[in-house]
Amino acid sequence: MRRTYELALVLDPTLSDEEQVGLVDEVKKMVSSKGVEVVKEESWGKRKLAYPVKKANEGRYVFLYIVGDGGVPPVAEVEKRLNQNERVLRYLWVRTDEDLRRAMRKGKRPVAAAEVVGITGPLRGGGGGGGGRERPVEEVREA
Fold it and tell me: pTM for the complete prediction?
């Protein structure tokens, strides 16, 4: 079974671009293991934080999209290292494969994020959506 994850990182805003690339490469090496790979990386740059974190009002946002074929990423080990690193303000692991499948079942066209991580084709549960026939909006409002 193919599982997908998203790892969101909020890094220290005082990092240079080279330091950010180095730190993200370290994280990618920690995450990569048997059957687990980072398929996409997005850097959103500096953004204002909703509240101060470690006396910082801004942070550098980086998102890693991870795919595991039967293997689970070493979440505990990576979290331990991220907690020890002072340059990482916050992080968040999210398992996204079930959400992407649910979105594809409801939508008529493929979800872009699902294509990036390789979720395509027939879905579990028949891929029909609600299990019954599709009804027009007027019929739904009356029901």
Answer: 0.70
